[in-house]
Amino acid sequence: MTVGSDAHGHPAVVPDPGATSPGRGAHLHPTAECYELAVRRRAFARALRHAGQGGLTSAPLGEYLDSPAHQP
């Protein structure tokens, strides 16, 4: 995952399964449990060193993990 932009241009944690996006990245086990724990701990902003105003949404990553295309 990397810090990117959501569909509205706001900073967001976005999936990057190929690890090809530019910018700072972070690793996360691709499971709902690990995702939910990271959200509860607010780990994304810290790991990705994002200190911008308005927060950092992780909804695009959550949607990716819930999508049928990602399921084994």
Automatic annotation (TrEMBL):
Domain YlxR: 12-51
SUPFAM superfamilies: YlxR-like
Region spans: Disordered: 1-28
InterPro entries per the UniProt record, alphabetical: YlxR-like_sf (IPR035931), YlxR_dom (IPR007393)
Protein name per the record: YlxR domain-containing protein
Organism the protein comes from: Nocardioides ginsengisegetis
